[in-house]
Amino acid sequence: MNRRSILLGAGAVLTLPLAARAEDANITGAGASFPNPVYQKWAEAARPAIGVHLNYQSVGSGAGINQIKNRTVDFGATDAPLNADQLTEAKLLQFPTVMGSVVPIINVPGIANEQLKLTGEVLAEIFMGKITRWNDAKIVALNAGVSLPSLAIAPVYRADGSGTTFVFTSYLSAVSADWRGGPGAATSVRWPVGNGARGNEGVAGGVRNTRGGIGYVENAYASRNNLVTTQLKNKDGNFVKPTMENFLAAASNADWSVPGFAANIIDQAGATSWPIVSPTFILLPTDPQDAARSANVRKFFDWAYKNGDALARELEYIPLPEATKTAIRAAWTRQYGA
Amino acid sequence: MSQAATASSATISHSARRGGNLGDLIFEWACRGSGLLVLVLLGAIIIELFIAGLPAFRAFGIDFIWSTDWDPVQEVFGAGVSIYGTIVTAVLAIFLAVPLAFGVAFYLTELAPTWLRGPVGTAIELLAAVPSIIYGMWGFFVIAPAFAAHIQPWIIDNAGELPLIGFLFQGAPFGTGIFTASFILAIMILPFIAATMRDVFQQVPPVYKESAYGLGATTWEVMRGVVLPYTRISVVGGIMLGLGRALGETMAVTFVIGNANRISTSLFGPGNTIASLVALEFGESETGSLKLASLLALGFILFVLSFIVLATSRYLLRSRLKA
Question: At B273, phi and psi to the nearest 5?
Fold first, then answer.
């Protein structure tokens, strides 16, 4: 008797939340933490608009890939794209949602925001411990007329596995053969020198605390906290500042017609292209267990492509070009029908 | 009538006893089940960790334990750096915390005026209630900058050139690193050690202490000759409790240790602990990957490490008891 009533009670507790949300179509996603703020904003705005209730868990790209491979969520999200073979094997469709950029931040006395000029090679040598002082000849040569102190460089990196690290190390690998053959590109790598810190706020705090510090964070984090960023030399040989126009320039020059939309925007050509820009991706099963839920995921992102750009820009993300969005919708139709 | 009453009361008592027997039986099995459940859980966790970590042990062999490589790109993993960091920070924290905890307990039980004992004792116990994330943030935003700006440069300048021990104090003053992590850990385990010491010091029968005072012993002589020998086992128990907590602490250490998979000889250099490495890398490890297996193998090693610490403490206590 007692046991039965306990069971009944437990059953009632379990069904209550489901019953209360019955009018909304629920979809679940998990993965990358980098686009989490914009997905949450979109979820909030889409719910009254189209009646799709997104529950997104920001657990990290790796965990997101695991969960979608096990089909425990409706979609996964990752910063590092899967290649065509991996997508076929796991029966997944991949498409981008927004783009983000990564910027170097520094703490050098007497150097203003967006004043210092750096190249990718110099950045790679700093993070490899080959350039150890701020008045190194290679940095001085790039910054004529700027007085650089004889101060030790203290590199700070993301200690937790992260998409930001993947994007930053992809850039270093693209511009430096030594980096490519050494630490390489991944969500976490073997850093030859420096201190690790947790999350964007950890890296920012580490740089702020250490005279001579240098680190890298997502642009949104740097601009909202007024961190001191640098200029970087892009592929065309121009020094560019980390501004939204320069991010957009890089995005518009990208070639999206690759399998899984895995466009490589790192070190993109173009006179004003910022070199460290990267898209973030959604993974959707091509053999959905529940076709209605899969359709709701596409409905959600279709709404986001149409109405979400302003929200994305507010959070310093870079919206996709219209042509790319059209191509993604075409890919959906090819895969799932109209 | 009286017979009937007796009979009915006998029935009642009989049925009550039967109900009681059933109740006893259920209670007995519930208790036994709870006790066994702990054992089963413990065993299941160890076995699960070992099986999940097996691919890492297979791939790298026994070298996994002391290899200092940790390269997610090349998929080469070793536990050496994090085992070293775990042991060094925990032991250093004990060295910092034990004298302080002893001082606190000594003061509270022997020296402090009675009206002050309550508030100070409660304050020490409240330290244990502070969530570890708070210690981490305090360490990162307050202690690390203070160390970087004031304490470390002074030590590096003055002790870095000393013969023999100078290498312990060299390097750049980041503020974070092994020493800062040990410092934060010491504060975190202080309440456990201090509270245990205070409680056991208070349990010393007053007649022993009064006898010693009667013989003309000073307060310190009473502490050293009567209280400490009487409570030695429990004091070591309290220290082991602190060591156990220091070995497994994750959040606070992650904030301040510098998270570098390199062994540096300097105390101010960055390092890593098992718990912090697992917490940092877990989110970006795919199912079936060697990295995930290595992280679970690290968890297994931490489990074994804690077990060794407790077993050693038991062994030490046994020999002390005989002496």
Answer: -120, 165
Q: Are A44 and A308 in contact (CB under 8 A)?
A: no
Are the Cβ atoms of A187 and B69 closer than 8 angstroms? no
Cα A75 to Cα A81, A302, B63, B95, B304: the distances in Å are: 14, 14, 39, 50, 38
The percentage of chain B sitting over the pLDDT mark of 90, rounded to a whole number, equals 40
Token duo for residue A95: 């498409």
- Whole-prediction pTM: 0.80
Residue A147 CA to residue A16 CA, distance in Å, equals: 66
Per-residue confidence (pLDDT) for residue A239, from 0 to 100: 95
SS3 A279: strand
Examine the pLDDT at A272 and tell me if it is beyond 80: yes
Domains and CATH numbers, chain A: 3-100+279-336 (3.40.190.10), 102-255 (3.40.190.10)
ipTM above threshold 0.90: no
Using an 8 Å CB-CB cutoff, list chain A residues near B176.
195, 197, 206
Size of interface A-B (CB pairs under 8 A): 97
Q: Which residue of A has its CA nearest to B264?
A: A193
Whether A242 contacts chain B with CB within 8 A: no
Where does the pLDDT of residue A23 fall: very low under 50, low under 70, confident under 90, or very high at 90 and above?
Answer: low
Q: Does the distance separating the beta carbons of A194 and B260 come in below 8 Å?
A: yes
Q: What residues of chain A, 267 to 306, have a C-beta less than 8 Å from chain B? A: none
Q: How far apart are CA B240 and CA B236, in angstroms?
A: 6
Higher pLDDT, B133 or B162: B133
